[in-house]
Amino acid sequence: MTTIPLEYAIGVDIGGTNTKCGIVNRRGEVLQYEQLSTPEYETAEEFVNALCVRLNLMVEKVGGHDLIKGIGIGAPNGNYYTGTIEYAPNLRWEGVVPLAEMVSKKMNMPTALTNDANAAAVGEMQYGAAKGMRDFITITLGTGVGSGIVANGQLIYGHDGFAGELGHTIIRPGGRPHWSTDLNGSLEAYASATGVVLSAKEMLADHPDKPSMMRKYPEDELTSKHVFDCAMQGDEIALEVYRFTGQILGEALANFVMFSSPEAIILFGGLIKAGKLIFEPTIEHMERNLLPIFRNKVKVIKSDLHEADAAILGASALVWEMKQSHASL
Amino acid sequence: MTTIPLEYAIGVDIGGTNTKCGIVNRRGEVLQYEQLSTPEYETAEEFVNALCVRLNLMVEKVGGHDLIKGIGIGAPNGNYYTGTIEYAPNLRWEGVVPLAEMVSKKMNMPTALTNDANAAAVGEMQYGAAKGMRDFITITLGTGVGSGIVANGQLIYGHDGFAGELGHTIIRPGGRPHWSTDLNGSLEAYASATGVVLSAKEMLADHPDKPSMMRKYPEDELTSKHVFDCAMQGDEIALEVYRFTGQILGEALANFVMFSSPEAIILFGGLIKAGKLIFEPTIEHMERNLLPIFRNKVKVIKSDLHEADAAILGASALVWEMKQSHASL
């Protein structure tokens, strides 16, 4: 029987809709779980108060304050260096919110904060598919495209704390405009749930005479789940959507490999449920666009983490990385 | 008067044509200088013998072996982790050459080796424009495009030692084929001396009726220097070549910024002699392709290092970074 040291980390994932929090051991098991509605709280102070009530509840259940090493928070536009959330478009609190400091003071625990995609990368390194790796990239293909980059065993935060916005790199100059950034041809405009739906609509319009099961949905009700279901049933246009999405993603991954030469790229999120429909074209086009020196070296793999727990695990993993000096206390 | 510690580093830059070597102090002053012809030596052993004769000569002149901390070598396809040169296309020695070990044994000194572009980045950090920076990228715009990436104060080598091949990232999918890699639309195919000449030829052919001073050169004799001279004299097509080159480079830089969020991007090499002709469109198109969160933050600046000394300085800077464990002894 392996002895697990009696030390726990708190992970908090702040999303636009829900905030999830949990207490996690070093093995990545979520022992306690709570959640609250993020937009229900008008001010960050009210939110922090409500959050800490839940955190204290969980802390009591696992045996008290002394067993907790610290708190890790993943949040949109989270800045690791300052512990602040800065101008997050999907949160009600405006401007720069010193969230790590607020939580740390109230809980009297060291607290680290970063953006959700960076937290996911640390989670993979601590508990998941990247265990033992020193150089890898995680890419979350969900509603949007998030990413975290680890090099030399460290997350790359950049000089301002905002590194790793790979979803916004331009992979098709002059290409599809992004619905919120207005940049043309960014990875997120293609390789996200939203991008998949846009690709499907474009292809349906480009081939008006070609039959497709996707035509049974009114255009503004088509979702990426519909595209997935139709592809699974062999719908040719839906299959072509995945092939095209994989091509764009593969081209982007090739560029990322020539940047940081990772051992693996770990994919996560709704899009990878399509399995080989997305992995095959992705890997094919990545390899095709690599210098020979990089070919057949980089693993493109699925995340190991349970999707339901991943955000909490990622946030909690920040705690194990903490040095004393990182504490906001 | 500042006291300079009496400790020196040897820098060796191995190029396809010449190998340059020098002895450098901590301030980046080259105290001794020698060079030899690289392709004159059929085997790596003969080359190392000839190199070490020159190194010993220089070592004697500065006061002997005890004052030298170590040797840094910059070489094409140099692998930092193994100290080997691997399949360098522009060197006569085939396969994998354990050059760091060979030099280290012969000189009885710790020796580190990396590729020339990575060495340039370490040189900027030690002596040049990146002094004190922890996050920056250097890009050499010469015959080809080389690059070195520093994040968290460390050079990014990647899991295999080959990170930082930004010249080969695809910036125009399906674009201009590269003369040696066969990849389409890579940065190097545009933003190098070779790329500038290709752009000029394309534009001259696309506008056969438009007068240009460049037309006085036979097509296969046109060089990037000619394009530069004509642009300086106001030649419209030559000016457009620089604008276009800057646009491509700026688009590429935007992607690099969204990867590692550097404090600065430091440009080096022949192309930047064009000054604002290249810097203005580069910065304009970089800013235009960035997420708002990154805009007006990243400095795009010229290298501080003298071009003649830069390669030796970069290689020598590897020595100051050495930990005892890095030594090949």
Keywords:
homodimer, alpha/beta, Nucleotidyltransferase, domain 5, 2 domains, five-stranded mixed β-sheet, 13 strands
CATH H-level homologous superfamily name of the largest domain in chain A = ATPase, nucleotide binding domain
Structural class of chain A: alpha/beta
Uncertain segments of chain A are: 325-329
Tally of individual helices of chain A: 8
Major beta sheet summary of chain A: 5 strands, mixed
Order of adjacent strands in the largest pleated sheet of chain A: 3-2-1-4-8
Radius of gyration of chain A: 21 Å
CATH topology of the largest domain in chain A, which one? Nucleotidyltransferase, domain 5
Q: What is the CATH first-level class name of the largest domain in chain A?
A: Alpha Beta
Described by its quaternary structure, the protein is homodimer
Total tally of structural domains of chain A: 2
Helix and strand succession of chain A? EEEHEEEEHEHEEEHHHEHEH
What is the average per-residue confidence, as pLDDT of chain A, rounded to a whole number? 93
* Most extensive chain-chain interface: A-B, 45 and 45 residues
Tell me the distance between the termini of chain A: 36 Å
